[in-house]
Amino acid sequence: MTVTRFQPPAPDRTLHPSGDNRFKLLEATMKKHQYRPDALIEVLHRAQELFGYLSTDLLLFIANSLHLPPSRVYGVATFYHFFSLAPKGEHSCVVCLGTACYVRGAAAILAAAEQTLGIKAGHTTPDGRLSLETARCLGACGIAPTVVFDGTVTGHQTPDQVQVWLERLKGEGLKVAG
Amino acid sequence: MDLNELLAIAEHENAMRRSICIRCCTALGCQSAGSLSLKQRLEEAVAEVDRTDIEVMGVGCMGLCGHGPLVRVDPEGTLYERVRAADASSIVAALDGGEATAPKGDPHHPFFTLQKRIVLENSGIIDPERIESYIAAGGYQALYHALHEMTPAEVIDVVTRSGLRGRGGAGYPTGLKWATVAKSHGDRKYVVCNADEGDPGAFMDRSIIESDPHKVLEGMAIAAYAVGADQGYVYVRAEYPLAIQRLQRAIAQARRHGLLGAQIFDSGFTFRIDIRVGAGAFVCGEETALMASIEGRRGQPRPRPPYPAESGLWGRPTLINNVETFANIPPIIRNGAEWFASIGAETSKGTKVFALTGKIRHTGLIEVPMGVTLRQIVEEMGGGVPNGRVKAVQTGGPSGGCIPATLLDTPVDYESLQRVGSIMGSGGMVVMDDATNMVDVARFYVEFCKDESCGKCIPCRAGTAQMLHMLDLIRAGRATAADLDQLEQLCMMVKETSLCGLGQSAPNPVLSTMRYFREEYEALLADRGSAGETMDR
């Protein structure tokens, strides 16, 4: 006679109701860190890399996976500047406001960018195409003032150069729209 | 891996060298100016002329970042500045008597000749992406020597006698810190490298990691052996992707060669290093906040004691040192305590790496013996202000102060800088000229500290916000002399009652500018010239 013992179904960690493949990739990172709670920041980095920003759903998913209270995950995600809880634009323009850049006129560059785009630093254009951000110091002080266009650090910038780049992007946007 | 294998790698690497080496900087500053495509063009140009005695090497920072991309042709030592990819073939042709189209730099300028390179000894010389290149420069021999010929106590003794002090800013004696961790009891101990270089205007640690990552790893391994740790962490800023990438590569290479991991150099010593990437919080440069962040929590500091040396990561004894401190260790073990102690000033031994930036002709990275004067650094090495005069030099970032031009003869050591109201700090040095308004500078730093305050203690959270408010009133011409006094009192209160270094030092930029440039504040007062009269707010 065989006794069939009740076996609880093995928790399928890779399952997220949306079936989005990116959750599997995120799982792989958590698994690599053995679901240790102290890997939370590493996991958030990976999540933002995959999804672009940290949605509430994503934060809850991470909290469940790492067995952490959602408050703790939210607390960490909001503490660090690097994490964004809102979607970012397709393109990014980051103006460095470190001391060396500041002394060499970064404020004028930021003002020019804000004027060209009609948005304030920390915001995204209404069409979601470009986010204007500021950085504390990129450590590229030798080539100050610096601006990062779509991840590429460029040095010795002037308000005019930044405006040209932004206008070009606006031009391309018009083409796409037209 | 044993010593013979290590020496064999070095020998093989040296035998591979060609007689002429064209070194092209691939650190962040020069990469941003297009040095990667330049390097590729140089390689193509060498292949075109079909000379097997020339090689092209990607190296770390050569120092003169403001004039990048930089290329140096060795052994003749010709330096080219602002090299474009189009100049590549002419640089190779110049080796056959042609004329290079790129502007030549002066390698005999005081910017280079007044330097003393210990931390940066390999920077701009070796290929930071290849462990063999570091081993050929004598790398990992200090670790071998420590593991096989010295006891942990002897290592600590050498570091203590060398007089090395923490390069993160506070200048705590390194040997003393190591001895405390070694004495502390714990089932496990940790070694942490603080690479959270948050001071705006500072990029020494980024440059060291990008140019010579193995040196930092070797220093950490020696420290771990001395204090009895088996796990290390490098906490590095997310803003430094190239440094993170080079560090990851270096750790993987060291592990493959048996220089990290279990039974290093066939000894009983085991040491692993993991990278922890920060997420943009200035306060995480403070050691207790940094540890909280490594543990995956909000980077908020806690009161000390207990100090990390007794109760650090997960409650265990933890040694935390800065990147530059660790980078000093291999040369000290290699050359001895007396050698190191013979360099520098009375109470500040060795050298210090500075990031020279702002309104100055030659911006970049320099390493000078402690005790040289600010004037030598700013005027001789940096070439002074391009159009105008030096007004002040800011050291120590948001925790430091502004030193006026009249005090440029102050020697650079921990005590002298403190005496004039600033600090050594991690090594940022921002030069300001006549066009810079000092009240604006103070506001810039206070706003920085207000934004970066973690919010845990009230003096810092509310105090920095009030300081910013008062500075805005002053700048708007709506403040009185009484407000100025009140600002000063508030600064003292924040300084004395804040929980951690961030708050305790946040008022420094205000206090130092009020001390040396008070007239600029007074010129903005509403009741200027008519004492007692106040304006409606």
Describe the structure.
The complex is a heterodimer of chains A (178) and B (537). Chain A is built from seven helices and five strands, in the order H-H-H-H-E-H-H-E-E-E-E-H. With 178 residues, chain A is α+β, with helices and mostly antiparallel strands. Chain A has two domains: 21-79, Arc Repressor Mutant, subunit A; 91-177, 3-Layer(aba) Sandwich (Glutaredoxin), CATH 3.40.30.10. In chain A, strands 2-3-1-4-5 form a five-stranded mixed beta sheet, with helices on one face. In chain A, a hairpin with a 2-residue loop joins strand 4 and strand 5 (152-154). In chain A, helix 3 crosses helix 4. Chain A is elongated. The N and C termini of chain A lie far apart (75 Å). Chain B has helices at residues 3-16, 28-32, 35-49, 88-93, 110-113, 131-136, 141-149, 152-162, 174-183, 204-211, 213-227, 241-256, 287-294, 323-335, 337-341, 374-381, 414-419, 438-452, 458-475, 481-497, 501-505, 508-516, 518-522, and strands spanning 20-25, 54-59, 71-74, 78-80, 104-105, 190-195, 231-236, 272-277, 318-322, 351-358, 364-369, 390-395, 401-404, 428-433. Chain B is built from 23 helices and 14 strands. Chain B has 537 residues and is of the alpha/beta class. In chain B, the strands form three sheets. Chain B has a five-stranded mixed beta sheet with strand order 2-1-3-4-5, with helices on one face.
Sheet with the most strands, sense and barrel status of chain B: 5 strands, mixed
CATH level-two architecture of the largest domain in chain B: 3-Layer(aba) Sandwich
Fraction of residues in H or I helices of chain A: 40-55%
Name the helix and strand elements of chain A from N-terminus to C-terminus, one letter apiece.
HHHHEHHEEEEH
Pair with the biggest interface: A-B, 39 and 56 residues
The CATH topology annotation of the largest domain in chain A reads as Glutaredoxin
Query: Mean pLDDT of chain A, as a whole number?
Result: 87
For the terminal residues of chain B, how far apart are their CA atoms?
74 Å
